[in-house]
Amino acid sequence: MLAHNAAARALFGPAFGTGPASNTARLLFLDPAMRASQLDWQQVARETVGHLRAGAARHPEDPGLPLLVDELRTASPEFARWWDDHTVLDRSAGTKRVHHPDAGVLQLHYDILRAGPHLLYTLTPADPATDRALRRLVTAHTTRTAATPTVRPITAA
After folding, report:
1. 137-154 pLDDT, tens per residue?
2. Residues 14-49: pLDDT tens digits?
3. How far apart are CA 28 and CA 43, in angstroms?
4. Contacts of 116 (CB under 8 A, 6+ apart)
5. Residue 19 domain-assigned (yes or no)
6. Are strands 93-100 and 104-115 parallel, antiparallel or unpaired?
7. Which helix (H) or strand (E) holds 143?
8. CATH of the domain at 31
9. Is residue 151 part of a domain?
10. Residue 88 pairs with which residues in a beta bridge?
11. Domain hosting residue 43, numbered range
């Protein structure tokens, strides 16, 4: 994960995008809380495996991908089984349901846009109730974290 915003942290937790939580496949397969929050976990997980396989084909020189695959194969029987079935998936849109501890069940549309070698994942509300819940969630998160800056300036060496 190269970048994320306050809405992503509000939805997926304050550590999202940092340290061990900087890889969505790792989160999805190895973090019990993330797994439980994904009400369509099997669909999302299978798509993630397919995206990783497609990424491996596009970027065979990436030294981190084999390490991630080995880690996930060792730690997750589902990942190992689905990786071994050689499914390649390049899905670019869909809908999923997420259970958030404060906002409840959220119905989200996702789009995956390709920008050169990078993918941009976007989530948007799929219904008015989710839109209202997300607005409340992001507002509450932003209010709580306003005193703590999350943007760090880049300094020249």
Report:
1. 988 888 876 655 555 555
2. 888 777 778 889 999 999 999 999 999 999 999 999
3. 11
4. none
5. yes
6. antiparallel
7. helix 128-145
8. 3.30.450.180
9. no
10. none
11. 6-145
